[in-house]
# Entry
Amino acid sequence: MIAVGCKTNEAKVQPSVVEKPDEIAKETEITEEPQLPKQEPNPSEIAGVTITKSDITEKAAFFPFEAEGTYMEVIAIRASDGTVRTALNTCQVCTGSGRGYYVQEGDVLICQNCGNRFTVDQVEVVKGGCNPVPIFDEDKTEDEETITISDEYLLRNKALFNNWKL
# Structure
């Protein structure tokens, strides 16, 4: 720690000059209300997760999202019929373990907790059991180019990710 006006080793630190408060007030008189810089909204706060369909292949893509401090992921993958399938990257059975998330190996997704193998074509089709949580049509908005999963849907499901241990 360096004390103002004291010698420390070979250097001497000089005290700083402080102006009188009434002089500062005259120089910095505020004539109008200060304007705060406009902040652009974070797209994830508006739309949740938006996926560009043309970017999705048979290799799983993982889209991160943070819901009130909880890290989440959405899986998007192109099935053999050419459709883009979506799911939350958490196992419906193993979610409480903290390791109930999927990695892809070939054309299957594998739960990192129990090892269950789940084919790409089953994503968004099967609900219940040891598989990724499907995101059905009623839970997303889809057009020719994009799929959007709302932040409201993701917030409703954040508890599924509370124990994640990556």
In short: Helices lie at 21-27, 43-47, 151-156. The two ends are 41 Å apart (CA to CA). The chain has three helices and twelve strands. Confidence is low (pLDDT under 50) at residues 1-46.
